[in-house]
Amino acid sequence: MRLNRPTLGASAPPEWLFKETITLSAPENQANVIVSSEAVSPTFTTSSYADAQGRLLSTEFPHYTEHRYEGVLLFGEHVGMLREFSWTPPDGVRVRQVQWYCVIEGRGYTATATSVETEFERRRTTLVEVLLSAEARR
C-alpha cells in the first residue's frame, strides 16, 4: 500500500469548526473507505463518541443490524472502538460496513469501510488494512 497525505488546507474564522474527510475508492466504486475528523465536546470519550454514533446509525439506517462491537488499537497507540454492521440504503442493495471511532484531544475520528454485503467477505482483508492504516497528525 502507498501512503497518501492530504494536500489541502484552509483558514477560517475562530468560531468555525474544522471537519476533515478523506475518501478512498476501489476501482469502479466497488468499495470505499472514508476517514474523517471533527471537533467534539471535551466531555466526549472514545466510548461515548462511539455510543453516540451507534445510536445515530440504529435510528437513521433502515434495516440496521449490528454484527460486532469491540475495542481495537488505532493510530498505533490509542484504544478505539470498532463496529461492524449492515443496513439497506434507499437503492435496496444491502451494504456491510466496518466503522471505527477514536477521540483524541477534542477531535472525534471516524473511519468507515463499505462494500455491498454480497462482496464484503471477499474484500474484508483489504478494507480493514486500509481502515487501520489511517493516521492522525497533530
From TrEMBL:
InterPro entries: Mog1/PsbP_a/b/a-sand. This is DcrB-related protein. It comes from Tenggerimyces flavus.
